[in-house]
Here is the input.
Amino acid sequence: MNLNPWLALIVAAGASAATPVPLSQAHAHNDYEHARPLMDALNCGFCSVEADICLVNGELLVAHDRSKVKSGRTLQALYLEPLRTRVKRNGGHVYLTNAEFTLLVDLKTDWQTTYPVLRAVLQEYAEVLTRFPPGTKETNAVTVILTGNRSKEMFAGESVRWAALDGELTDLNGGEPSALIPWISGDWRKKFQWNGLGRMPESERDELKQIVAKAHQAGRRVRFWGAPDQSVFWREMLAAGVDLINTDDLAGLEEFLNKR
Here is the structure.
């Protein structure tokens, strides 16, 4: 079989990698920018990775914006295919444990054109993906959550979904089920002033805990992006109960979490 060169590299890397301790709170921000997309994160035990996609000539190419796409770097080649291969090898899970794994897909192009193509692609991997019948969730090895140019209108008329939505802080007051919006993601700099230097102000610490508590009451997880990417910040997030730590420093966060 002639493999896409990107897929061949990833599958070869995954076949030889030792299995690390799964880290449920570790999220690989812009994962595709690492030397080995997906595999570097998996080798550090990350249970969540982020892939940005652009619809170009009918293909879902992984890149931060349209001008940076490269032929062959599709969502299937970099993420879906190696994940399916790994799940089959591990008896139904991404890791040898039953840790749930999340693929956060950031739509960089218009959802009206991108989502129909994405939905068709996801259906091809149904055997390893979490499915969402009306009002509920049937957990599988990989859960897909959509962010970026997404809309609640995307799923209109669908009897079964293959993805959920990444909510915003404004959704904290909404009544949507957690099966539709299992995550709340916020831009740290728009909500908080603390930049990781000195002590975090008590007022901001209290506000953060209130956000987390409200999200948890609705069965949602919390993630912040655009935040300080250092151990002093990670420590505050864990203390406040933030569920997902957004990072570009894979090895640093792995070491931090494993030393707790």
Remarks:
- The first strand starts at residue 23 and ends at 28.
- The chain has eight helices and nine strands.
- Residues 12-17 have pLDDT under 50 and may be disordered.
